[in-house]
Amino acid sequence: MLRSAKNIMKGYSSAQVLVRNATANSDEQISRDNLDEISQLTYSNAEFFDIMDMLDKRINDKGKYWRHVAKSMTVLDYLVRFGSDNCVLWCKENLYIIKTLREFRYEDETGVDKGQIIRVKAKELTSLLMDDERLQEERRLNKS
Amino acid sequence: MSKIEANLHKALKKACSIEESAPKRKHLRTLIVYTWDHHSSSEVFEALKASPFVNDEIQLFKSLIVLHKIIQEGHPTALKEAIKNREWIRSLGRIHSSGSEYGTLIREYIRYLILKLDFHSHHKGFDNGTFEYEEYVSLVSVADPDEGYETILDLMSLQDSLDQFAQIIFASIQSDRRNSECKISSLIPMIAESYGIYKFITSMLRAMYRELNDPEGGDALQPLRERYQEQHNRLFEFYADCSSIKYLTTLVTIPKLPMDSPNVELAANDNDNNENRT
């Protein structure tokens, strides 16, 4: 389809294609397998940067593509819990990107508030990242 | 002008558009993210100063909201830059005559912002514009009770003027039945700020009681405690008023305070004895 053509044209790496498909503009939910696959890839350095770059793009997308933002937040939340330590470092370094989404606002043509889900995710992820103890504990439990 | 700067100017222009509406979060966010990306806020202030918003009352009011949000959420350099530009901000208050409704709101907003900046330039420990809680500030202040006393007093004056300004906004929302989103949106930074200040006062007062743990110390702190109670009640009302505005409740979480002000006299280790206060 269009996206797969774009993937080739823009020369995205396979990790990036994976992220792009997972955070696509459709109502489909991201599968757990997909999340696992992405988080495993963050343990390799080259792929880690590819993944984060793509997520950064998606997260800063405009309101019309609120699904990109919402799904990327889901991925990021998963990476913080299950991904490599680098994911946590990256998020802390770029906390403002997440923090500033706590007031995200978008209404679709029918006036339905689509921002709510993003505001909630942003709030939850921000408070997790600011609570080192809880974060360490969660990551420890997820490893075992 | 580089592409990045051009984007900055565009975002600012759009955030402070001429319509009587809330500044769009999207553009505001671009400005805030810019200060973090570049670890610098001088470009944002240069752009603000060079823009012609000041000629229109609504645009000027919106740019004050934008300014306030950037100070709160932006990189710490935003606060420093704002302190540097205090006189320029003050001068904005003299542009429009006092007659119109927005003219009054603008002047009150500026009065509040100047107080806030004065506070920050006196009390350097708070390096972030939202008063997010930082342990060390309360420790530093408590180690020197005189300084702590003064800091709490200053925080309380700031809270008082925030409250006054909020009252003025509410009065103007009620007198105006039209779309008042623009005015309401100025309450958003006020909610965050008042809660931050409240939490600071609470924990600092508590720490002071713990430090001066004798009747004499208690007497000395008595005036602060009374004022604290008063402010607690007003803040409770303020949040109740905010909760009645639907536009606000969907956008921000409005903090819920307990009906009665928490007891600040108890030492941290016997928090369970809350009922025993005299």
Structural class of chain B: mainly alpha
* Run of helices and strands of chain A: HHHHHHHHH
Largest inter-chain contact set:
A-B, 15 and 13 residues
Helix content of chain B: over 70%
**Total number of helices of chain A:** 9
Strand content of chain B: under 5%
Oligomer: heterodimer
Low-confidence stretches of chain B: 267-278
Beta content of chain A comes to under 5%
| Helix content range of chain A | 55-70%
The main pleated sheet of chain B reads as:
none
The rounded distance between the terminal residues' Cα atoms of chain B is: 66 Å
Mean pLDDT of chain A: 91
Radius of gyration of chain A: 15 Å
The coarse overall form of chain B would be: globular
How far is it from the N-terminal to the C-terminal residue of chain A, by CA?
A: 40 Å
Along the chain, the helix and strand elements of chain B come as HHHHHHHHHHHHH
Mean pLDDT of chain B: 86
Largest sheet of chain A: none
Strand elements of chain A, count: 0
Number of strands of chain B: 0
Which descriptors would you attach to this protein?
heterodimer; A: 144 residues; mainly alpha; 9 helices; B: mainly alpha; globular; disordered C terminus
Task: Produce the secondary structure layout.
The complex is a heterodimer of chains A (144) and B (278).
Chain A: H1 2-9, H2 14-22, H3 32-41, H4 45-59, H5 66-82, H6 85-93, H7 95-99, H8 116-130, H9 132-143
Chain B: H1 3-15, H2 25-38, H3 42-50, H4 57-73, H5 76-84, H6 86-92, H7 101-122, H8 135-143, H9 145-175, H10 181-185, H11 187-211, H12 215-243, H13 246-251
Characterization of this structure:
- The complex is a heterodimer of chains A (144) and B (278).
- Chain A is built from nine helices and no strands.
- Chain A is mostly helical and 144 residues long.
- In chain A, helix 2 packs parallel to helix 4 and helix 5 packs across helix 6.
- The longest helix of chain A has 17 residues.
- Chain B is mostly helical.
- At the A-B interface, helix 7 and helix 8 of A face helix 2 of B.
